[in-house]
Design a protein that fits this description.
Blueprint lengths: L1 E3 L10 H15 L12 E3 L4 H13 L5 E2 L6 H11 L3 E2 L14 E2 L4 H13 L6 E6 L2 H4 L1 H11 L6 E5 L7 H11 L8 E4 L5 H11 L7 E5 L5 H6 L11 E4 L10 H10 L11 H19 L7 H9 L33 E8 L2 E4 L5 E2 L1 H5 L5
Parallel strand pairs: 1-2, 3-4, 4-5, 6-7, 6-8, 8-9, 9-10
Antiparallel strand pairs: 10-11, 11-12, 11-13
Helix pairs in contact: 1-10, 1-11, 2-3, 4-6, 7-8, 11-12
Family: Belongs to the leucine-binding protein family.
Organism: Streptomyces aurantiogriseus
Keywords: Lipoprotein, Signal
Length: about 375
């Protein structure tokens, strides 16, 4: 099963379940996995606790062998259901801390924690005062410590924390406050970091309208809050994102390592506008299904159940993602277990920038933020 919110007033990830269905069509058109047909169930969690629990109950009822490549902010609702049935959660979006603590979770990226820590580390040498605009939610509460861990690692002061409703239709008050905070030191060019998911574009619209001097500060954000589509829709090279730093989990979308995923989209979902190869949700779903496929292939002719898939992953299976991440293996002895994130096995991020309206790599190599996270206050 793959689930994600669709059609809500907050963050939506319709490309994730849509790509999961396309992936199943592609796999089955090419002989299945070890000759087995892949059946994908999808569910809309609607950004609601009750609906997230319904999705998990459906996974249990229909004997899903894994939940793969999904997004939900409501881990307190779905993890108890999955844990009770022994169903592994492979490659969630990394939006909740539980995804990095549950023994049944197998994350493929470092979640929002790594993105903010990596961004803070870069901004420490590029910015004066920093203002973070983030959702006023439980998930949003985890963002300031991570950004500040990166800023502190670079010898910078902590960011000003600006809370905002994640489903607002305008953000003029928050934009004004962020600008005031970022321009508090007239001798340095400050930075505004909006991390509002799908509502980041709404914030940036308010940001541009608030004051003519918005260009006096630099903007920076994380993938998932902005992608190439957003940059195009806000003016391309003349957008407020021009020159912005953006951290992501994976290589830039124009990297040749995405060729296999793009082939799946081309062959099975070319006309599906929900599926965008630049969307980190779609990219995460591709990687998560790659993990699932290798776990099933490792079983050879053995029975495929939630228990056997989980067993393959727990027995030290080393998964290759074609260079999109380091090789993945989930063990409880990893470095970040000491700070309460025992399932976080990939703390690498990429640094990208908006240049002439295009999101391109600012550095070719991955940046490992493990040591930065070790100094973060995650409680």
């Amino acid at each position: 099963m793959t689930w994600a919110p669709e059609g809500t007033a907050a963050t939506n990830k319709p490309g994730m379940p849509a790509f999961a269905r396309a992936y199943a069509r592609w796999v089955n058109a090419n002989g299945g996995i070890n000759g087995r047909k892949l059946t994908v169930l999808t569910c809309n969690d609607r950004n609601e606790t009750v609906d997230a629990a319904k999705c998990a109950r459906r996974a249990v009822k229909e004997d899903a062998v894994a939940v793969v490549g999904s997004y939900s902010q409501h881990s307190e609702s779905f993890f108890p259901q999955l844990e009770g049935a022994g169903i592994p959660y492979i490659g969630g979006y990394g939006v909740t801390k539980a995804e990095f603590t549950s023994p049944l979770s197998y994350p493929v990226n470092g979640g929002q924690s790594t993105l903010l820590a990596g961004l803070g580390k870069e901004l420490a040498t590029a910015c004066g005062p920093v203002a973070l605009v983030r959702p006023d939610t439980i998930a949003g509460d985890t963002l300031p410590p991570m950004l500040n861990a990166g800023l502190t690692a670079g010898g910078h002061n902590a960011a000003k924390d600006q809370r905002a409703a994640e489903d607002a239709t305008e953000y003029s008050a928050q934009a004004e406050a962020a600008l005031d905070q970022a321009t508090a030191d007239p001798g340095e060019k400050g930075c505004v970091v909006p991390a509002l998911g799908d509502r980041t574009s709404t914030f940036m619209d308010s940001f541009r309208r608030t004051r003519d001097d918005y260009t006096s500060v630099r903007t920076a954000t994380v993938l998932g809050s902005v992608d190439q589509t957003v940059i195009n829709s806000t003016g391309g090279a003349s957008s407020p994102y021009e020159g912005a730093y953006v951290t992501g989990w994976y290589p830039a979308a124009n990297d040749s390592r995405w060729a296999a995923m793009k082939k799946v989209i081309s062959e099975q979902a070319f006309s599906d506008t929900r599926i965008d190869a630049t969307d980190p949700g779609v990219q995460t779903t591709w990687i998560a299904y790659s993990v699932f496929r290798q776990a099933v292939e490792s079983l050879e002719d053995g029975e495929v159940t939630a228990d056997t898939v989980r067993g393959a992953l727990d027995d030290g299976l080393k998964v290759s993602t074609g260079g999109l991440t380091p090789n993945l293996r989930w063990e409880f002895t990893d470095k970040l277990a000491s700070i309460g994130l025992p399932r976080l096995v990939n703390a690498n991020v990429t640094l990208q920038t908006v240049k002439q309206g295009r999101l391109v790599a600012a550095k070719e190599a991955f940046v490992d933020v493990t040591k930065t996270l070790e100094n973060a206050d995650v409680d």
